[in-house]
Specification:
By secondary structure, the chain is an alpha+beta fold. It has three domains: about 1-70 and about 210-240, Pseudouridine synthase, CATH 3.30.2350.10; about 75-205, Pseudouridine synthase, CATH 3.30.2350.10; about 245-300, Archaeosine Trna-guanine Transglycosylase, Chain: A, domain 4. The chain contains nine helices and 18 strands. The protein has helices spanning about 1-10, 25-35, 65-70, 105-115, 140-145, 180-190, 220-225, 225-230, 250-255, and strands spanning about 15-20, 40-45, 55-60, 75-85, 85, 95-100, 120-125, 130-135, 135, 155-165, 170-175, 195-205, 215, 245-250, 260-265, 270-275, 280-290, 295-300. The radius of gyration is 22 Å and the shape is globular.
Length: about 300
């Protein structure tokens, strides 16, 4: 059966925005959609814990090359915290390890605490994470009851806003940089308020500026079938909409597509760019220097159309 499935697989280029349901790992969700598409190559951008829901970009074929850019992008989460109880995992699946009274704070006081976390800071990753220490996943060590020292990592909280504060329930929305552990953020917010907490629910609303309404449910994908699902595929360059674009003339396009640096004229704002040929065909991602030299960073072959 596996051999037959492999034989049916075809090149599929593009990405989908899945509204991941609770109860599945990110990879389990990816594999289910990959089978629906009979796709040869697939990856996802930004893991969500099994209990978490929300936007999970699934990339296929040439679009797997944009995974790294999506991983680097800001994410927006709707977070529900349960105040007064801390768990060993930082979420509702864990075992309670501490209890503390919840202070009677006004909405303005809670909002002031949240705003104090805006900007850049250093965050210590949780033990229950997929980071490695001496070749071992931290969560593997944590399950054995071991705790090891973790190096703080730089994060950035772009926006954070209170949605609800009632009793032991705290709900807020946060836009944060890659590498931010929301479970740890919840624990740090509770500590600043003089209590403890864990993440009761986590929903990712946006990745790289995509809207919540751009997502599709897994059940809907499964009902549609491969042909209809392929029509939903977004072209890879849509994942790079935040980058400025540049168009090249025919001779420049050929050289760039073969991995050569081209002279694209002086650049007012050097940096990473989306690169297109004169007809608007997407060639890839380039790095433009101040003197106008444009070097290929990631090339894309999007000549084949999805069936």
């Amino acid at each position: 059966m596996n051999a037959r499935a492999n034989k049916r697989s075809e090149p599929v280029d593009g990405f989908l925005l899945l509204n991941k349901p609770a109860g599945l790992t990110s990879n389990q969700a990816l594999q289910r959609v990959k089978r629906l598409l009979n796709a040869r190559k697939a990856g996802h951008a930004g893991s969500l814990d099994p209990a978490a829901t929300g936007m999970l970009p699934l990339c296929f074929g040439e679009a797997t090359k944009v995974c790294a850019f999506l991983l680097d992008a800001d994410k927006v989460y709707r977070v529900t915290a349960r105040l007064g109880t801390a768990t060993d995992t930082g979420d509702g699946d864990g075992t309670p390890v501490a209890e503390a009274p919840v202070p009677d704070l006004s909405r303005d006081e809670w909002d002031a605490i949240l705003q104090s976390f805006r900007g850049e800071s250093m965050q210590v990753p949780p033990m229950y994470s997929a980071l490695k220490k001496d070749g071992k996943r931290l969560y593997e060590l944590a399950r054995r009851g071991e705790t090891v020292e973790r190096e703080p990592r730089p994060i950035r909280i772009g926006e954070i806003g209170l949605l609800e504060a009632a009793g032991r329930r705290l709900v807020f929305r946060v836009r944060c940089s890659k590498g931010t552990y929301v479970r740890t953020l919840v624990e740090d917010i509770a500590r600043a308020a003089g209590t403890v907490a864990h993440t009761a629910a986590l929903h990712r609303e946006s990745v790289a500026g995509f809207r919540a309404e751009d997502m599709h449910d897994l059940a809907g994908f499964e009902d549609e079938g491969a042909e209809a699902l392929r029509r939903r595929l977004r072209p890879p360059d849509q994942a790079l909409a935040g980058l400025p674009e540049i168009r090249l003339e025919a001779a420049q396009s050929r050289r760039f597509a073969h991995g050569q640096t081209v002279a694209a004229g002086p650049a007012e704002a050097p940096g990473t760019m989306r690169v297109y040929d004169a007809a608007g065909g997407f060639l890839g991602v380039g790095e433009r220097a101040a003197d106008g030299r444009l070097a290929p960073r990631r090339l894309f072959n999007t000549g084949e159309k999805n069936p």
